[in-house]
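User: I'm writing a short report section on ligand binding and want a predicted complex to refer to. Could you take this sequence and guanosine-5'-diphosphate and write out the structure as tokens? A short remark afterwards would be nice.
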Amino acid sequence: MKNTEDTICAIATGKGMAALAIVRMSGPLAFKIASQIFSLFDQDKKPISLDSHVAKHGYIFDPISSNLIDEVVLTPYKGPNSYTGEDLVEISSHGSDIIANTILMLMISQGARLAKKGEFTQRAFLNGKIDLTQAEAVLDLIQAKTVHQGRLALSALSGHLGKQINAVRKDLIALLTRITAGIDFPDEIGDIPEPDIEGVVRQNIAKLDELTRTARAGNFLRSGLKIAIIGKPNVGKSSLLNQLLKYERAIVTDVPGTTRDSLEELIDLNGIPVTIVDTAGIRHTDDQVEKIGIERTNQAIDAANLVLVIHDLETHTEGEEFETILQNKPYLLIGNKIDLPKANKKNIPDLVFTNCIDKVFISAKTGENLDSLLASIEKWVFQNNANKDMPSLNSRQTELCIKAQKALDLVQETQKGNYPQDCLATDLKSAIDALSEISGEIVSEEVITEVFANFCIGK
Ligand SMILES: Nc1nc2c(ncn2[C@@H]2O[C@H](COP(=O)(O)OP(=O)(O)O)[C@@H](O)[C@H]2O)c(=O)[nH]1
Ligand SMILES: [Mg+2]
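Assistant: Sure. The structure tokens for the complex follow:
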């Protein structure tokens, strides 16, 4: 599967004006091509030999016309001690698209070819420098939009996730080997004691279960969380949106029905990318525009992962019928305008709702207790999982993890039926295969292509 006969090159930095641009090249010709277009002096353009991991200041020139292209720093990495595991060269030039492109063209004219998306990382994977979970983490890290996303990607990049998967895989391989040996040598080795098999399978189902549970939070961290703010007119929905955004995005007035359309904004909630939708207040009305607004509110609820139901603590009325509209959506109940009963020395009414995840009392006007609201949302995202920095599975990995779990469930079932031990081998093997596919030990060409298709060129 190795595809390292040719030498690839690409601009690794973004387009546009910048202080520096980096052009990289990897493959068997990387050092040769670099030494043909690089020299220590701008006058006397003698190619030089390159020492691994020693950055050199010098000049790029066109070996045919002898034209000077740029003053650069060149860093050679001799394989296998490089990102790709092959000979790799990085040239830092001045950050002009024209210069970077000219250097790229020179490399191509000397025998390199333009790299495909993610091909440097793909080579790192094919050469065994990283496993597939680490390659996926590279992409997550490049695409991270919040600090938390970056931290999780970095943790997976360090190989943490791959190690956990591999620990389970190794346990199962050891078990399968032992069962197979027992089948092959019934007299010398024989069956494994049933409780031993049961123990190994149960422990590893639990480990996989813990990993798949991280997928939910991971999904919100990668793709974002959608939250709809709903409630009767004038309870302070738009005020809460503004408070969360820290600027006056929505119009706030004391006229009921001010917000007529749903408004969507993105916030970074302690590292979780959250889209907040402010909606038109829910009430019976003959106003055509307001009716459409309320219809949109229903759509916003449908699309949301979590709903904030706002309640006015000042005009508190019993028997709000939100639960029918919510249709089993998880929701937080928010008592708003806590400043008013406090100022007027009135009792804070209790809010009686049966299925809410949590109740928080805030003031959208003053920002009081907003921290508790954010903490409550965060707690729901992580489902009280204390270890927020545990790398979380992406959808490809989750699917395979569940596949492995199901196969292990079958092993457990077969075991209960007291069948001969060789009946366990097939399911055990498919659990091992699914786990091997997560780390990329065994993986099809299509899966690899799909993983790297989302990368940018140059990574
Ligand atoms: N005292 C007080 N007034 C608030 C609070 N939140 C909103 N209001 C006021 O309630 C009125 C309606 O607010 P708005 O955000 O437009 O409510 P919406 O119709 O639910 O979007 C405005 O006059 C706000 O200033 C709060 O926490 N305390
Ligand atoms: Mg409003």
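A remark for your report: The chain has 15 helices and 13 strands. The pocket of guanosine-5'-diphosphate (ligand 1) is lined by residues 231, 233-239, 252-254, 258-259, 281, 336-337, 339-340, 363-365 (CB under 6 Å).
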